[in-house]
Amino acid sequence: MLTSGGLTGRNVMQANYADGRFQKTQPGGWQEFNAVGEATFSFQETARDDWSVYLIDPSRNLQIQIDIHRKMISWGQNNGPRSDLYPIVSMARAQ
Question: What sign results for the dihedral spanned by CA atoms 70, 73, 79, 82?
Answer without folding.
Answer: negative
